[in-house]
């Protein structure tokens, strides 16, 4: 199994980092970290960019449009963007493929592959909602990282793990996490 993972500049970098940690040595991962994400990682976390890169099998810069993941002929099982900024979501919704993240996401949609977006913005205005509805209509899974409190989380880590597990399950990864009932 092979997945593409991207981190964009929105708050919530821990979601993408945790996804990479959970995927390490389980599936082949191809990682893109936007320049804005690099800044947010520094502000929000104690993780180094080098550590995050080490979690992936391949790393690409966001302007590396000749990367294999920019083509539909590159076989993979789907893409997770965690966190996904509104800017990135809007670019994907309107097929603006001016960087590797939006190009790889566009490839997922045109090839009928799974695309999961952990959109991190609140509150949402009408324009955001229309754009997110457009994404859902063209095949993306919109998954704001909303905590599941029925799991009785005891830490932020519990909340993050539950959200990431659910996202990875959507992408076809076998995961074990607290479920309803």
Task: Describe it.
With 181 residues, the chain is of the alpha/beta class. Helices cover 41% and strands 17% of the residues. The chain has a 6-stranded parallel beta sheet with strand order 3-2-1-4-5-6, sandwiched between helices. Strand 5, helix 6 and strand 6 form a beta-alpha-beta unit. Helix 1 crosses helix 7. The protein is globular and about 45 Å long.
State the order of secondary-structure elements, H for helix, E for strand.
Answer: EHEHHEEHHEHEH
What is the share of helical residues?
A: 40-55%
Structural class: alpha/beta
Regions with little confidence, pLDDT below 50 for 5+ residues: none
Q: Please tell me what the overall shape is.
A: globular
The whole-number mean of residue pLDDT values reads 97
Regarding quaternary structure, what we see is single chain
Trace the largest sheet across and list its strands: 3-2-1-4-5-6
Task: Please report the distance between the alpha carbons of the first and last residues.
Answer: 30 Å
Total number of strands: 6
Count of separate DSSP helical elements: 7
Largest sheet, in brief, is:
6 strands, parallel
């Amino acid at each position: 199994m092979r997945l593409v993972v991207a981190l964009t500049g929105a708050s919530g970098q821990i979601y993408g980092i945790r996804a990479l940690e959970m995927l390490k040595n389980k599936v082949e991962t191809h990682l893109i970290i936007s320049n804005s994400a690099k800044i947010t990682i520094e502000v929000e976390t104690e993780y180094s960019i080098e550590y995050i890169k080490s979690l992936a099998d391949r790393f690409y810069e966001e302007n590396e449009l000749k990367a294999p993941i920019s083509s539909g002929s590159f076989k993979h099982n789907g893409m997770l963007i965690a966190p996904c900024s509104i800017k990135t979501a809007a670019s994907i919704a309107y097929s603006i493929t001016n960087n590797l993240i939006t190009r790889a996401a566009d490839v997922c949609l045109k090839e009928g592959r799974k695309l999961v977006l952990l959109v991190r913005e609140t509150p949402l205005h009408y324009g955001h909602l229309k754009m997110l509805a457009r994404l859902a209509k063209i095949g993306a899974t919109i998954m704001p990282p909303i905590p599941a409190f029925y799991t009785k989380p005891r830490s932020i880590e519990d909340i993050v793990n539950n959200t990431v597990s659910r996202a990875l399950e959507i992408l076809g990864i076998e995961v074990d996490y607290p479920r309803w009932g």
